[in-house]
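Dig into my protein:

:::
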Amino acid sequence: MQTTWKGTISFGLVSIPVHLYSATQEHDVPLHQVHATDGGRVRMKRYCEREEKEVPYAEIAKGYESPDGRTVTLSDEDLADLPLPSKKIIDVLAFVDEGEIDPLMFSKAYYVGVADKAAAKPYALLRDALTESGQIAVTKIALRTRESPAVLRVHDNTLVLQTCIWPDEVRPAAGIAPEEDVTVRPQELKMARSLMDTLSEDFDLSRLHDDYQQALQQVISARLEGVEIPHEEDGGEAPDNVIDLMEALRSSLKQAKGGRRSGGGSDVGSAEAEAEPAPRRRAPAKKNAEPPARKPAARKPAAKAAAGKSAADRTASKGDAAGRTPAAKKTGSRKSTAPRKAS
């Protein structure tokens, strides 16, 4: 790795000679400017307005224009000789909990390596002290043409220096969040937490990849091969307003759980049961109100009993039509056949 900065970490009376190495690199497809009509390369020329001619890079310096129009020229030597202790020394100012530094302030990260073998023990001492305490060290450092606050922390058993912006460089967030008073129901919060837990299952940050760079490379390859450029399928427009927040959470939870399971049941219902409010109890009926008539429970008779009952019903219906019961009809028939006594 190429060394970015050389200096010393000052930890009280302990000095640690170190080198800084850039800890991150951004992958990007290199693009340059061309003339849209013919593809000719467009290059930027360093042009001096006073002499009206192009000047070489070696003659380029930095300048400052004062409010009254005067210009001050600053060479690289002027910037290198600035009276800054932080040019070569990373002075540890304090040790704080990591939560005391707003992540919004973090900027670029650098690995900290030892400059010689003698620095190994004090390096390990500072690293282990930070690990055991769970704290980070607040420092300042001058890199290139800028002094910045920075923090020293441990990553993979290696000291990392991460530059920060100054606190007054963080813009206030006033007026950005909704100003109206919004009430979030407990069941909505429970459903949102359940969705958060589901989306976090088996999440691996290392599996993320840059879809933009992949799509751009596909377009470049298509142009080079003279084939049709791939286009993204229209996924439809996202809704611009949430009509039913609870239904949106419920659908999101089902979709998330369905994507993480291949077959089998889902426990979305249990999450919904926890999130949904308990049903309301009916108010007790008034004393003067008459209770509703209860319907008799219907029994399921056996097949033979049902058939016998149907036949009996048909016989009973015939007897009712003649104005007498079947038993009365049978008795009358026996009386009519008995002999009468002589008077």
Notes: Confidence is low (pLDDT under 50) at residues 262-266, 300-343. The first helix runs from residue 76 to 80. Helices lie at 76-80, 120-133, 186-200, 211-225, 245-260, 268-275, 303-322, 326-337.
